[in-house]
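Before surveying the methods themselves, it helps to consider a single example record, giving the amino acid sequence and backbone structure tokens:
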Amino acid sequence: MPAATEPQSSTTQQITTPKENSFPCSFPRGSTPPARSLFKTILTVTVGEEKKPFLVHREVLCSVSPFFAAALNPSYDFRESRSSNFHLPSARPIDFEYLVQWIYTRTLTHEEVAAPHPAYFRLIRLWILADELQVEGCKNAIIDFMAKTADESNSVPTPDDTVTVFGEGGVREGSGLRALVVDLFAWKKTDHLVEGHEDTWDESFLRLLVARLKRMNWHEKGHAPWRNQITRCRLYHEHNDQSTCGDSEKKK
């Protein structure tokens, strides 16, 4: 294994998931709706205090997000289910735009993330929004993309990023993204970075990092867990139906 080098530091409302589905706002669990059914109805989603509008296909949103499937399901009689408009007051327009990119293209390419010092906060904020809207596939794609970016650029998140992940209002406790960020620092050669960076690291992140380092055994140290697809899925992905990425591949 090559010698490690010092990584760079890159500068709602709750709605119950529906148990029954009614077209066009949800589809049977575990099924993949036919493409011809996904592009029938335009929904205007306004985002943030400025109410920036995004025109998105109603059926597409419902097919990837139980949150939207419930909110737009006529059988629940929510006001939004009878409207062609939906407002997300607490979301950032730039984050929702990134989410729409993933929903339609299944890509996370972004000029700021592709920079020499990746802007991890873009991926972190997108993960938080996808978690709020229950877009499971996007969250898992972010895990994979973040792990790949960290290795290809030999970088890790910044101190400010650790505040975004572990601070108040950040990434949900117990999530795979939190575990990945800790592991990136535990396995990569980050001792001088953590010790000497002029900015302040999140305290809860530092406690978790110390605990992770103390629990590592000699066998683990040479095998970064995010580099193995099966291990990455087990440790960092989230699958509401208890399946794994391997199970999903077998079904194809």
